[in-house]
Design a protein that fits this description.
The protein has about 625 residues and is an alpha/beta fold. It contains 20 helices and 25 strands. The strands form four sheets. An eight-stranded antiparallel beta sheet has the order 3-2-4-1-10-9-11-14. Strands 5-6-7-8-12-13 form a six-stranded antiparallel beta sheet, with helices on one face. The structure holds 2-deoxy-2-amino glucitol-6-phosphate. 2-deoxy-2-amino glucitol-6-phosphate binds next to helix 10.
Length: about 625
Amino acid sequence: MCGIVGFVGADASNRSVQVALQGLGRLEYRGYDSAGVATIGSDGTIHVVKKAGRLTNVVDALAKHPLPESSLAIGHTRWATHGGPTDQNAHPHLSFDGRVALVHNGIIENADELASELADRGIALASETDTETAVHHLALELAKDDDLLAAMCRLARKLRGSFTLVAIDRDNPNHLVAARRNSPLVVGLGEGENYVGSDVSAFVDETRDALELEQDTAVDVYSDHVVIVDFDGNPTQGHPFTVDWSVDAAVKDGYSTFMEKEIREEPTAVLETLRGRLGTDGKLRLDSSSISEDVFRRIDKIIVVACGTAAYAGYVAKYAIEHWCRIPVEVELAHEFRYRDPVVNEKTLVVAISQSGETMDTIMAIRHAREQGSKVLAIVNTHGSSIAREADAVLYTHAGPEIAVASTKAFVAQIAACYLLGLYLAELRGNKYVDEVADYLDELNKMPERIQKVLEQEPRITALAEELKDKDGFLFLGRHVGYPVALEAALKCKEVSYVHAEGYAAGELKHGPIALIEEGLPVFFIVPTPRRPELHAKVLSNVQEVRARGAHVIVIAEEGDDSVEEFAHQVFRVPLSTPTLMMPLVTVAPLQLFALRLAQAKGLDVDKPRNLAKSVTVE
Ligand code: AGP
């Protein structure tokens, strides 16, 4: 997820760059590992300043070497997906002939094909990004008719994946062109100047009059008018709206907290994590790996090391990877792993899961593993992070920056990435055929829509939180892959609502925790699908045991599972026919939302809970 801004004014001035930088400052929550701006000078050339690191590095560079006055500017603040956070990989990217500059948000799935077409024409890539393939192809299209809008539409028809593209043409400095598919783009309408942005925070300081653009549309932006077409060049309309949010709310996409915004982004986080994972040979691939396929084939044990929510994603992974790959998977809290003298050798694959990639406990664990001869594969959300750099292989989640201290969208993205790893290993080791892997990927690709559907129950979840806000203890119970979800739900409640909340394996109830059950105690159950009777029946009997002792029973169950109705005070539904192994992707969402609403009902600071930090960089 990156931040994009574009500005077109009537006359050349410094205002172009100023507005672009202001917009990028508002957009840094969308990504901040590198940034850049481009303008067209009176000399008819495109000037670009771009730097790794935060936007301030660009501001500092411009203080020393200002960009020329211009009637337009485009800017980008990056959350890396392809290629680490370096000056070279930062946007804007310049075409081989210097005529076009382009910024991009999204993932171009056919970048490899586009790159080989460029190689055939002798056009080499200067960066590691998928975006650069697009800027060179755009220049090739523009050379055909000098029509930037038509060229952008022809390019858009060539691309697969998700993209918001904004481009400028040095030969026509009076307009910019943008296009979108599966990635956001809005137009801001000013007085004698116009803007584009990833969202309204890009230009809300300048105007509150905006246009929403539909899927597969392109827009030609001048200082005094805009032209909108579909990718076949047919005229179409944007949808006018007035931004009635404060700037602060705009940065949170209109939600009151980053935590809610990020829970709502879970469908996109899963979708983008799954996107573009198949190579041109149709087989799954990692983002980077120095581990040979033979080494992967010789692995006889996997140990997942992580902390907190990331560890619970690892617990889910255990069920899937063991079932698909028939390899034993241990899940260890990173800070425990290192000191228990683990049995690790060259046939052990250590998988480190981390949103920040900077958790010191996890860093120290992978260092210990590597000293024992193990290979390390990292599942991280942050490009260029310490864990990504120190691992032998990396599988990035594409959840975008996670600002709230409580991890939510990263959790589901980590689970999706773990499934990809399991299917990658199963295919490589011959446990699953390509068609079976394809079937699982088809099911995975249905999950974003299913998560979206579950989140529609928000009003009832909010009401439940209001009803339970004075309770001082909560129990979460699940079995099989529902158990890690119970742990995660309990952690969310602890973190943001400061209440005692315990997650347990439902089967453990009779071994002690049932003593906790008393009149009115809220007990949440994650109930497996009835299509897995050996699990469903046991959890249902746990529900009955708890209800019989007076607890306030809340159940997460599959649509159509009426067996839970008579024992539950409230039932929240997850879509029918979700594969059991993938259920955590839908069962966790209502529970995270509940923790959020409970904290809000208590008037607590959801995004910055007491005593906590977003990344624990000390042991
Ligand atoms: C989760 O909500 C917490 N903020 C915390 O448990 C977190 O998951 C843990 O510190 C690991 O962080 P990481 O994913 O950045 O390594």
